[in-house]
Design goal:
Helices cover 5% and strands 41% of the residues. It is mainly beta. The protein has four domains: 86 residues, Immunoglobulin-like (Sandwich); 88 residues, Sandwich (Immunoglobulin-like); 85 residues, Sandwich (Immunoglobulin-like), CATH 2.60.40.10; 94 residues, Immunoglobulins (Immunoglobulin-like), CATH 2.60.40. The chain has a four-stranded mixed beta sheet, with no helix packed on it. The protein has a four-stranded mixed beta sheet with strand order 11-18-17-14, with no helix packed on it. A hairpin with a 5-residue loop joins strand 15 and strand 16. The longest helix is centred in the N-terminal third of the chain and has 22 residues. The protein is elongated, with a radius of gyration of 55 Å. The relative contact order is 0.08.
Length: 436
C-alpha cells in the first residue's frame, strides 16, 4: 500500500489529481456514456415466475414445495397474498413453502417476485393450493337390490391424492353377489342379481397414489321382486272402422313380462301384443261390449290376471236415402238406381224381403233394371251392407201397369180421343214407401 503521508508535496498533488480523475470517470460512466472502457455488469433480463402449479397434500402430512423465477437480477425476494393456510409459510429468499397443514381446503394465492435490479422489477402469479382431507370411504350402507333388476351404486370417498384404486379385501368379510362387480377406477358396484335372495357382506378398500388407503365393511341385500300386478282397470271404447290402440299397464315382476288373453275374446279386428301389452287393430262388426281376461307372467313364473272389457260402437253406418221408386210399364225397359249415404268401403245391395216385379232384377251395385213382364205392384225390402258388415234396410214397392192400347202400343193414345186423362193421371203411379 502507498503511504500517502510519506509522499512529497508534488507527489501528493499528482496522487490527488489521479484520484479526482478516477472518481469523475466513474461518475461519467455510471450515467450510461459509451467509450468509458471496463465492465459495467449484465443488463437484467425480463423477470418471470416459472411455477405454474403447486402439488396437493393431505391434512397433517408435511408439505414441501417451492415457487421459482427466472430473469431479472438476483437475489430474489418472494411474498404471498393472502397468507398461506395455517402452519404453512413461504421463505422470502428461496420461495420454499413448508409446514404441516391442518385444514382441508383449496385456496388461491398471489405470489409476488421482486428482483435486485435498479429500479427493481416485480411480477405476480396466482396459484391454487389444495389440501385434501385424509382419504376415507364415506359410504356407510348400500341400498337393496332386486332379483333381475339392474343395480348401480358407487362407493363414495373423500380426500386422497391423484387417482384412486378400489378393490375387494379378500377374504375380508365375504364377497359380492355372484353377478356383481366392483369397478377398480370409479368404485361403482353394478350388476343384475339372480336368485337366491339374501344378504352379501364384503370389505372394500380404496388407495391413492400417495399410499393412503382406507377400508370399509359393507353389504348388499338382494330381495325378491314383488309379483307382477296389472294396474289398468278400464279400457277406452272403440268404433268400427277406426284404428284402436290401448296399453294394459302393469307393475312389478321379474324380467320381461309375457301377455295373453286367458279367457273371453277381444272385439273382432283387435289383438293383444304378447310383449308390450298393447291392444290394437281396427274393430269390425259386430258392435257391442266384449269381455275378456288378460294374464301376465314374469321370468320367475309369477303371474297376475285382470278382467277387462272393450265396447265397440258403430261408426258411419250406411243409410238408404231412396224411399220411393218410379212405376213401370209392361214391355218397356226399366232402370232405377238406389241411393245411400255413409258406410265404410263399397256398399253391396240385395233384396232381403218380398220380390221385385217379374222381369226386374237388383244388381249388387244398387241398380234395378229389366223389362217388366206383368202388370202388378210388388212390395220388397232392400239391404245395403258395407265392407265391415254394417247395413241398413228400406221397404219399397214398384207398380207396373199394362201397356195402353193405341198405334204401336204407345203408352198413351193420340190426343183427341176424349178418353185421355192426360199424362201422369193414371192410377198406375202409386208407389209403396217406408222403412222397416
Amino acid at each position: 500500500m502507498v503511504d500517502h503521508f510519506s509522499l512529497t508535496s508534488s507527489q501528493r498533488g499528482r496522487s490527488i489529481g489521479q484520484v479526482f480523475f478516477a472518481g469523475a470517470f466513474a461518475t461519467f460512466c455510471a450515467v450510461g456514456q459509451t467509450g468509458c472502457g471496463g465492465d459495467s455488469g449484465p443488463t437484467p433480463g425480463s423477470l418471470a415466475v416459472t411455477t405454474t402449479s403447486l402439488p396437493e397434500q393431505t391434512v397433517n402430512l408435511p408439505y414441501s414445495a417451492s415457487v421459482s423465477g427466472s430473469g431479472g437480477a438476483a437475489p430474489y425476494t418472494w411474498s404471498v397474498s393472502p397468507a398461506l393456510p395455517g402452519n404453512l409459510s413461504l421463505d422470502p429468499a428461496t420461495g420454499a413453502i413448508t409446514g404441516t397443514p391442518t385444514t382441508a381446503a383449496t385456496t388461491t394465492h398471489t405470489f409476488t417476485l421482486r428482483d435486485s435490479s435498479a429500479p427493481s422489477q416485480t411480477v405476480e402469479q396466482a396459484l391454487n393450493l389444495t389440501i385434501e382431507p385424509p382419504l376415507a370411504i364415506t359410504t356407510t350402507s348400500l341400498p337393496d337390490a332386486s332379483i333381475s333388476s339392474s343395480y348401480n351404486e358407487p362407493v363414495e370417498t373423500v380426500g386422497g391424492i391423484g387417482a384412486l384404486t378400489f378393490s375387494l379385501v379378500l377374504p375380508g368379510t365375504g364377497t359380492l353377489p355372484s353377478t356383481f362387480s366392483l369397478n377398480p377406477t370409479t368404485g361403482l358396484i353394478s350388476g343384475t342379481p339372480i336368485a337366491p335372495a339374501g344378504t352379501f357382506p364384503f370389505t372394500v378398500r380404496v388407495q391413492d397414489t400417495s399410499g393412503q388407503q382406507d377400508t370399509k365393511d359393507l353389504s348388499v341385500r338382494v330381495t325378491p321382486t314383488s309379483p307382477p300386478q296389472i294396474t289398468t282397470t278400464s279400457l277406452p271404447e272403440g268404433r268400427t272402422g277406426q284404428p284402436y290402440s290401448a296399453r294394459v299397464q302393469a307393475t312389478g315382476g321379474i324380467g320381461a313380462l309375457a301377455w295373453a288373453v286367458s279367457a273371453g275374446t277381444l272385439p273382432s279386428g283387435l289383438a293383444l301384443n304378447q310383449s308390450t301389452g298393447v291392444i290394437s287393430g281396427t274393430p269390425i262388426l259386430p258392435v257391442g261390449t266384449s269381455s275378456f281376461t288378460v294374464r301376465i307372467q314374469d321370468a320367475a313364473a309369477q303371474s297376475a290376471t285382470k278382467a277387462l272389457s272393450i265396447t265397440i260402437n258403430p261408426f258411419n253406418v250406411p243409410n238408404i236415402t231412396t224411399t220411393t221408386l218410379q212405376g213401370g210399364t209392361v214391355g218397356q225397359a226399366y232402370n232405377q238406381t238406389l241411393r245411400a249415404t255413409g258406410g265404410l268401403g263399397a256398399l253391396t245391395w240385395s233384396v232381403t224381403g218380398g220380390s221385385l216385379p217379374a222381369g226386374l232384377t237388383l244388381t249388387s251395385a244398387g241398380t234395378i233394371s229389366g223389362t217388366p213382364a206383368a202388370a202388378e205392384t210388388s212390395n220388397f225390402t232392400v239391404t245395403a251392407t258395407d265392407t265391415f258388415g254394417q247395413s241398413d234396410t228400406q221397404d219399397l214397392s214398384i207398380a207396373v201397369s199394362a201397356a195402353k192400347p193405341g198405334p204401336g202400343n204407345e203408352p198413351n193414345p193420340p190426343p183427341g180421343n176424349g178418353k185421355d186423362q192426360g199424362p201422369g193421371k193414371g192410377k198406375d203411379e202409386e208407389q209403396g214407401k217406408g222403412k222397416k
